[in-house]
C-alpha cells in the first residue's frame, strides 16, 4: 500500500503507524491481485488494444491528495463508494470544470489533462490506467 503525501507517494506496511494519518491510501496493481478487476482490465485491453493497470484510492474528508497534476495515461475512473470532487482543466484559457462523481459514476480523463481532487466525505474509486503500450498477446489465444 502507498499513502499519498502531497505530490509524493510513501510506501508503508499495513501495520505502520503512518496509515492512521489523514492521507489518501493507494492500492496498486489490483489488475494482478484481484480476479474481478483483472477480468475488467482484460476486457478494457481487448476493447482498446492497449495495456491497462488498475489502482484503488480510498479517502476520508480532509485527506491529503496529490494536488493539481496530470497523468501519462488515459484514466477510466469508477466511483465505488462515496463521492469525489474533481476540478478538471479542459481548456487552458479557462478555469477548471467541477465534476462530482458518486457511486457508479464513470469519469474518463484523457492523458495530460490537468486535474485536482478533493473528498467531501468518504470515497473509494478505481482508476484504470490505459497506457500507450499495446496489449500483450495471451499465449493461449495465440495458439487458437
TrEMBL record:
Superkingdom classification of source: Bacteria
InterPro entries hit by this protein: JmjC_dom
Pfam families per UniProt: JmjC_2
Limits of the JmjC domain: 51-91
Protein name: Cupin domain-containing protein
Amino acid at each position: 500500500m502507498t499513502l499519498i503525501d502531497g505530490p509524493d507517494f510513501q510506501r508503508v506496511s499495513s501495520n505502520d503507524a503512518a496509515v492512521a494519518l489523514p492521507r489518501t491510501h493507494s492500492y496498486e496493481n489490483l489488475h494482478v491481485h484481484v480476479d474481478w478487476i483483472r477480468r475488467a482490465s482484460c476486457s478494457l485491453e481487448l476493447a482498446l488494444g492497449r495495456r491497462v493497470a488498475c489502482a484503488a484510492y480510498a479517502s476520508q474528508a480532509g485527506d491529503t491528495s496529490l494536488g493539481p497534476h496530470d497523468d501519462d495515461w488515459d484514466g477510466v475512473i469508477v466511483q465505488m463508494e462515496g463521492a469525489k470532487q474533481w476540478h478538471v482543466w479542459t481548456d487552458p484559457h479557462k478555469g477548471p470544470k467541477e465534476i462530482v462523481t458518486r457511486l457508479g459514476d464513470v469519469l474518463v480523463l484523457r492523458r495530460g489533462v490537468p486535474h485536482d481532487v478533493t473528498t467531501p466525505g468518504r470515497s473509494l474509486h478505481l482508476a484504470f490506467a490505459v497506457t500507450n503500450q499495446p496489449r500483450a498477446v495471451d499465449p493461449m489465444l495465440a495458439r487458437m
